[in-house]
Amino acid sequence: MIESQMQTKISSFFKSAENDDEDDDLSFWEKQEDDIINTYSRTRPNPNAVSSPSNTQTQRPNNTTYAQFHLDFGQSDFLLRACPTCGMNFTPGDPHDDKSHTQFHKSFTHGIQFRGWTQETVIPLPTLQSGRILVVSETAPSSHRKKAQEVVRMMEIELGSEWILHHLCKVYLFVSLHRIVGCLVAEPIKEAFKVVSASLDSVKKRKVKPCSTTLQFGNVIFQRELQKKVASVTHSERMEGALFCHSEPTAAACGIRAIWVTPSNRRKGIATQLLDAVRVRKSFCTGLELEHSQLAFSQPTSAGKALATSYTGTGSFLAY
Fold first, then answer.
1. pTM recorded for the entire structure
2. Domain presence at residue 167
3. What is the chain's Cα-based Rg?
4. Which of 74, 207, 225, 239 has its CA 20 to 30 Å from the CA of residue 189?
5. Does 38 reside within a domain?
6. pLDDT tens for each residue of 275-317
7. Are 164 and 258 in contact (CB under 8 A)?
8. Where does the record place the N-acetyltransferase ESCO acetyl-transferase domain (predicted)?
């Protein structure tokens, strides 16, 4: 008796009278068969019909314009040209590139524009007739150091990059007519090596035997065409630009790390005046005036070697 009552209660819990009606409805739809009814009819294509151009071709917008900037005929300067003087790469014919190149070329050849500073460290030089020489050290204001770095970047075009300036260097700027036309970078050193002097007269020049340019066979004379060939370089000529130094070090106080003058202002004594400014008292060494023999030159080019020889008065100058 108890089990029948419990069974009744459980069945009544899972199944109600309303569910019986829903089950009958579902069973009714499941027994019905599905019928597919077409609500449209397909029309056959007309072979005589003519397609309109608007359906077959894509119309371009009326506001589209085209412009041709370059003609490629295989020329070498189609994209960029490197200026042989300032080294800047630019596109000839481009107004923006032409303007940028003109400005940079003038700064390289005539000097970077300079309006001056309110507080300048001017080196007094009695032999200086025009212009002035300024010195910029690590303790100078940031605006002074930024201008010095701008000049050094200009120097790196000819002397190489990423080796000229570091935090111990002093930068000497030669200012003339509101432009910086020369720069010298100096650093403190303790020793250097004396260069072995070599005379140019010791280099023997090879003589070329003259050769006849005509050939004659009876009454017929032929003119020979001459082609210039590069002469072979001897060992002495090849080593002319190299520096040979003594192995024993020599005491030195100032190292000329780099010196540079704009191309249009060379042969005017600016480099010599910059070297004199380094030697002045309270300029590089406080309370001490340097002698010519206390200056050493780093990695001199052929022009730098000639300058060092002329300024020190000897081919046995100091190098480091």
1. 0.64
2. yes
3. 44
4. 239
5. no
6. 999 998 778 987 788 999 899 999 788 888 999 999 999 989 9
7. yes
8. 251-320
Of 302, 298, 300, 297, the C-alpha closest to 312 is 297
φ/ψ bin of 282: left (φ > 0), alpha (ψ from -120 to 50), beta (otherwise): left
Q: 14 in a domain, yes or no?
A: no
- How many structural domains compose the chain? 1
Residue 62, in any domain of the structure: no
Start-to-end Cα distance in the chain:
119
Domain that holds residue 120: 112-197+241-319
* Mean pLDDT on 230-240: 41
Q: What is the pLDDT of residues 57-105, one digit of tens each?
A: 556 566 777 766 666 666 555 678 889 899 888 888 888 888 999 999 9
DSSP readout, 162-185?
SSS--TT-EEEEEEETTEEEEEEE
Number of residues assigned to the chain:
320
Distance, CA of 119 to CA of 281 (rounded, Å): 20
